Amino acid sequence: MYERLIPVELTYYLKLGDAVVITDENLIILDVNNQYKNITGYKKETIIGSPAKFLNSNMKPILYKSLRSVLSNGKSWSGVMVDIKNSPGFWYSFITITPIKINEQIYYVGITRSAEQLVVEDNYRRKEEQKELFKVLAISSEIRDTGIVDHLLNVQKLTEKFLLTLTEEKIYSLSVKYIDKIIQYSILHDIGKSGIPESILYKPGPLTFYERKIIEMHPLIGVEVLHKISDGMNYNIFNDIEIASNIIKYHHEKWDGTGYPEGLKGEDIPFEARVIAIVDVFEALVSKRSYKKPWSKKDALSYLKEQKGIQFDPFLVDAFIERVIDLSK
Length: 329
Ligand SMILES: [Fe+2]
Known about the structure:
This protein is of the alpha+beta class.
């Protein structure tokens, strides 16, 4: 059996509840955890020492097209595997691969997470309204967080109020169609969390550097999910996919360029993402979470004000603070 010791830091990944595979820089598998072994159905002795691509038989090779080039640039890669053979509808699972350099050696850590909750059956798709479908998709990405349904719906409601205020008060001239799309897609902003290991997403203590890096992949994973869902649908469900994609990809960008995933600055951040960034943070602050008490609206608005021109678009955040949130209610 092929054996090569992996650095101790990497062994922590093997303790995750999700299926994890670790390879060397040539994508030769160095170790996997039991979950990975169970999912692939191979014995550990067979997997270790094999090139990662030997598993292509049950992972669609087309999804790996961009893998090599992205990883060779030192970036993370994430993709969605779609299996249409064994179940009705589609079965999605996600893999994120992060290059990690330790003692001048590059290792790749791949974390997979199955997402059966995204199974969307044919009949259901046709009957239900798009809105309901988006809600299900959005909620399924964080299914274990009971407060998430309210958070997502509140983000959507507040986005609507914000955008209507901006147009009614003639602060911005936005078309009804555009506003409508932003409202519809706002609920999907965190859909990429479906690709983040739950052990990290719901970790009670502080996150390590690498765990934070993994969480910060959710906007990019979200865009992959969006495209895979869109491609898998028989009809054109996202007729303005760019708006949805901008919201999902850029809602953690910051006005001063210190956000992620791309570090976009100022008006380079799409308008719809700047709007959702404000609403998402405000709503998260005033909500009760398992790890925190709800902030008062006043405190949340003070935070937004502090972050004016740093995290948030100064013009938009002023409008939000002054005209959207009613402190008397
Ligand atoms: Fe997010």
